[in-house]
Specification:
By secondary structure, the chain is α/β, with parallel strands linked by helices. The radius of gyration is 38 Å and the shape is elongated. It starts with 5 loop residues before the first helix and ends in a 5-residue tail after the last helix.
Length: 415
């Protein structure tokens, strides 16, 4: 062959990724030559001196079948890729429709080809692990969640998983399909919860609703689900029927100004414990009445500002600490966290108001009340200081120790 031999031709074609097959017909009987041709991908190697029409026809037929298989496989891959792209496009359309209120129903229909006239009444169910994610718990693997849902839905032919992730999944099922299985969306939700409890040591939040008339109402129901999921701020929600739960933006009982006035009117010795009780009681009431967490956080921050406003003077250090507490409160992800930051802010207030004489008087009263009990004078006193004198800083604690044990040395203590 001019320019290059057969081996170089095969090598060049492979390097250029040319889709072809090679049948080597040669007079060379050298083993290394034959082996090189086969290693490079030649279909076979025939000697010219021994070739026959039948053998050549057979070899060419094999090569044709191999090329046909390649073409079929290539076409299948193209079809699969096209189907995958179409599926992803449909999946994205469903997600966009439910998560964005501005996404038109007509656009969803044009992409998914769904027949909205024959959907009938619908049921929605959302499974969420958001509470566990916020608590920094390890979420189950997506494959485990997927297989659990597949187990729960195995008998339902016409159902749709609108979107799926490790933290949230939305199911849309025609009620006609539920009736065929002698089931309800409530029963399906209970089944899903049962399976999750069986396969993993946790239970997701499951919110469901039936008698949804069409896809437009279904989107409204989904956005209401998101409002209800915010209530996980107060703790685990479990399984709930969205029909039976409503949220409110109204804080019960007192305004933040009234509560600030009431707290500041308390006797100094009782202010911390009583204000902590007020805050806990308020938050528990908000939890029972399903107050939107954003409103509770906003109320708590306003309370902080109002307390500082009603005080005539407050040290700069206490002000800085209150600002820090307010920032933490704005980012609180749970009732427990918000409650702790509110109590911390009250501690900052009380620290700023304690005078040296009040400190000495408090220690003296503590000595009379606690000392000599079971012989643990210093331990009991130290515990009382930390709990009752409002988490004083290191310099104040040293001063208290000096005052306290001077009092213990110089004056008799009555048990």
């Amino acid at each position: 062959m001019p320019v290059m031999d057969g081996i170089d031709l095969i090598r060049t074609a492979k390097d250029r990724s040319m889709n072809c097959e090679f049948l080597v017909i040669s007079n060379y009987e050298d083993f290394n030559y034959v082996r090189t041709a086969l290693v490079l991908g030649a279909s076979d190697y025939i000697l010219k001196v021994s070739i026959s029409p039948e053998e050549l026809t057979t070899q060419l037929q094999k090569i044709k079948e191999k090329l046909d298989q390649k073409q079929t496989h290539h076409q299948h891959e193209e079809n699969s890729a096209e189907q995958s792209f179409h599926h992803q496009e449909q999946h994205a359309a469903w997600r966009e429709y439910f998560t964005h209120k501005s996404y038109a129903l007509e656009d969803l229909v044009s992409i998914t080809d769904i027949d909205t006239d024959h959907l009938g009444s619908l049921a929605l169910c959302e499974i969420s692990f958001d509470w566990y994610a916020q608590q920094l718990e390890t979420l189950p693997a997506p494959d485990l969640i997927r297989s659990t849902l597949k187990n729960a839905l195995e008998h339902f032919d016409r159902r749709r998983i609108i979107f799926f992730s490790s933290s949230s999944t939305l199911l849309l099922i025609q009620e006609e399909e539920l009736k065929k299985q002698n089931n309800t969306i409530e029963g399906l939700a209970a089944r899903i919860e049962q399976l999750f409890r069986y396969y993993m040591p946790l239970s997701p939040t499951i919110i469901y609703q039936d008698h949804v008339t069409d896809l437009l109402q279904a989107r409204k129901v989904y956005h209401r689900f998101q409002e209800l999921l915010e209530l996980s701020f107060y703790g685990e929600l479990g399984t709930m029927n969205a029909h039976n739960v409503s949220v409110t933006t109204s804080i019960p009982e007192l305004t933040y100004r009234e509560l600030a006035t009431r707290i500041l009117a308390l006797p100094t010795a009782e202010r911390l414990s009583r204000s902590e009780e007020h805050i806990k009681e308020l938050l528990n009431t908000c939890r029972q009445q399903h107050v939107v967490p954003d409103k509770v956080i906003q109320y708590s921050v306003h309370l902080l500002v109002e307390l500082e406003y009603q005080l005539s003077e407050i040290p700069a250090s206490a002000h800085d600490q209150l600002v820090e507490c307010a920032d933490f409160m704005r980012n609180a992800i749970s009732q427990e966290e918000l409650e702790q930051k509110a109590v911390d802010s009250m501690i900052a207030y009380e620290k700023s108001l304690i005078s040296g004489q009040e400190m000495k008087d408090a220690v003296t009263r503590a000595l009379h009340h606690y000392a000599n009990r079971e012989g643990h004078r210093e331990i009991v006193l130290k515990g009382w200081i930390i709990k009752t004198i409002y988490a004083l800083d290191s310099s104040q604690l040293k001063d208290l120790d000096r005052v306290a044990f001077t009092c213990m040395d110089k004056q008799p203590v009555n048990p």
